[in-house]
Amino acid sequence: MTVRDVYLPVAAQPSVETLVGMSQLAEDHGYERVWLPETWGRDAVTTLTSIAEHTDDVGIGTSVMNVYSRSPALVGQTAATLQEVSDGRLRLGVGPSGPIVIEGWHGVDFERPLRRTRETIDVVKQVLSGETVNYDGDIFQLSGFRLRCDPPDPVPPVDAGGLGPKSVELAGRFADGWHALLLTADGLEDRLEDFTRGTELGDRDRSEQRVTLSLPCCALEDRERARELTRQHVAFYIGGMGTYYRDALARQGYEDTAYEVAEKWASGEQDAATEAIGDDLLDAIAVAGTPEECLDHIDRFEGIDGVDAINVSFPRAADREAIDATIDVLAP
Question: Shortest CA distance to 146 belongs to which of 67, 68, 77?
């Protein structure tokens, strides 16, 4: 059975209290988990701690914590602490992010992202086991590290984000789940094959892994507003977040549109970039429109074999009223 989660807004919010309130609403509506991205606003760890303290049952997670701005040992310590304060409700999501974030905002070279992600997952899992960590990787070498507190029980799962074939295969091979986004149904099925291949290479039990698909969603009585907000959101990701999302769409048969959006965005024509997102592409990677349309549309994504959770996310420019309305309409 496919579950529904909430992906808390990537855009800035008025306060941590606002994000706590959204999480409480998600909990009241029966969503399984709230995921928090970590970009250039409030850090995920402090915010998730506050959410954990003010909720009872809803799961919490990072989607995703990048593997460059914290050491793997610190990520492991952080996961152990979040698991403690949430009474076992954490699911950790990690990933490489991209050059704009890592080099531009953190001042770290974006080198060997796949290898760094794999070694981070390896070290984090060893830290969470409570055993002494002696690790001799290509990037990280650790000797004698061990948690001073008791290891978490249960151990939180560690997921990986990824867009391309190799990164998704890596998630299947080494992680407990994969976070997918900006994928059409056909594109998702292709990447699910990569994930399954990784599962087999790693001799993993697929039934114990989780594939989470994040969908930009906006369910409003004002259909055109819902679709325009979502169209702007998609254009930002393709045009304003480097080449990863552009290239991912190009692989899925939207090469002309992806490059047109990226070029217009780069030249400062953001309105034109948004207009280049046609209805066919919007409906292929997002859920936007009236409540009735959105309920029907999200069901189609949930019907894709291999998807274990749908992550209801929101357009960057959506206000609190639109976010709350969408949470209400798409509640499990």
Answer: 77
Beta partners for 29?
none
Residue 106 CB coordination number (10 Å):
14
Mean pLDDT of 148-163: 97
Distance CA 175, CA 51 (A): 25
**Residue 312 tokens, joined:** 């209801």
Q: Which two tokens stand for residue 141?
A: 């070498």
pLDDT value of residue 259: 96
Q: Is the pLDDT of residue 223 over 90?
A: yes
| Domains identified in the chain and CATH numbers | 3-329 (3.20.20.30)
φ and ψ at residue 225, rounded to 5 degrees: -65, -40
> Is the distance from CB of 93 to CB of 122 less than 8 angstroms?
no
End-to-end CA distance of the chain: 11
d(CA 189, CA 306): 8
Is residue 289 within 8 A of residue 283, CB to CB? The reply is no
Reply yes or no on whether the pLDDT at 40 is more than 90: no
Say whether 109 sits in a helix, a strand or coil: coil
Q: How far apart are CA 104 and CA 184, in angstroms?
A: 29
- Which residue type sits at 282? L
Tell me what pLDDT residue 172 has: 98
Q: Does residue 12 have a pLDDT over 90?
A: no
CA dihedral 187, 193, 195, 199 (to 10 degrees): 170
Omega before residue 127 within 30° of 0, cis: no
Average pLDDT of the residues in 255-261: 97
261: helix, coil or strand? Answer: helix
Task: Please say whether the dihedral angle defined by the alpha carbons of residues 180, 315, 311 and 7, taken in this order, is positive or negative.
Answer: positive
How far is residue 14 CA from its own chain's centroid? Answer: 22
pLDDT range class, residue 10, cuts 50, 70, 90: confident
Note whether 325 and 295 are within 8 A (CB): no
Sign of CA dihedral 242, 243, 245, 249: positive
pLDDT band at 241 (very low <50, low <70, confident <90, very high): confident
